[in-house]
Amino acid sequence: MYRKIAAEELANFLGAISHPERIRIIEELRHGELDVTTLQERLAIPQATVSRHLGVLKTQTIVAERKDGRRVYYRLTVPVLASWLISGLDIIGEKSTQGVPLSKAFDSAKKLWASQKR
Amino acid sequence: MYRKIAAEELANFLGAISHPERIRIIEELRHGELDVTTLQERLAIPQATVSRHLGVLKTQTIVAERKDGRRVYYRLTVPVLASWLISGLDIIGEKSTQGVPLSKAFDSAKKLWASQKR
DNA sequence: CTGACATATTCACATATGTAGATGTTTTAG
DNA sequence: CTAAAACATCTACATATGTGAATATGTCAG
What we know:
The structure is a homodimer.
Chain A: H1 4-17, H2 20-28, E1 34-35, H3 36-43, H4 47-59, E2 63-68, E3 71-76, H5 80-92, H6 102-114
Antiparallel strand pairs in A: 1-3, 2-3
Helix pairs in contact in A: 5-6
Chain B binds a DNA duplex through residues 15, 19, 35-37, 46-52, 54-56, 67, 69-72.
């Protein structure tokens, strides 16, 4: 069992992830490294914003950088993080369609999860 | 593939979870429902604080309540959420032991995860 | 060198989140 | 009915997080 310190670490970890644009960054990096400009184009947000978000992710060692000339390529430190995150998306599933009761969304998510239980 | 809205939903979801005490609440509820007083005793924090945290979790339909007399019992809407969260803990693993470089923690976490790939 | 490109950082400000303590509501015991 | 238990909510305040705009840093082309 884990206690306070682990809960704090986990909170910091999730806190670094829980931002729409940072989630999209993680998604974009799912298949491999990308440089900042490419990320900026895909997200369509200011360069400074991308840079700061990458900084937050770096804080928790979620991404790592590799410099090549004037470009900086970022990658997921733990690639499986992306699929872990997508699992979370499955959990909330149909929640995004406002009319549908959330319990149903979680219900279908539960089934999705059953197939990949540890 | 998912886009902006899904990323926002996921961010809200993770945002509701990413707090040390809320993570501990989820952990406590892993094996079944508990009333507020019991949670308060286990977390050793003010009653009002427990109540607000439960409110935040309720916002994202992470917990549901059942009233019985003057007690209110809370449970995880999707029990598998707890194990999903623990998977996240495995990912950051040894990170909590400050001296150890994080990359090593992620490395060992990667192995743990490999066995339960989708 | 110099200018343009790629990225990071700083500043000033706005919004969000968290906390303790007091108060309100509902429910049960007597 | 009344008091106490069990929760929820409100208030006031502090801290954290997010943003755009400007600026700084490093690197390459010519």
